[in-house]
Design goal:
This protein has one domain. It is mostly beta strands. β1 and β2 form a beta hairpin.
């Protein structure tokens, strides 16, 4: 068994933002968000 582990569960682009859903140690579910920068 591995303790103190964080794993990504899903990555989606929604309304010009990247959303990363993650789980930590089977106790926490989190969300990290980042705006998508325009290219060009």
């Amino acid at each position: 068994m591995t303790g103190n582990t964080t794993v990504s569960n899903g990555l989606v682009c929604f309304q010009d933002k990247w959303l990363l859903y993650y789980g930590a140690a089977d106790r926490v579910i989190g969300l990290a968000a980042c705006r998508e920068e325009p290219r060009g």
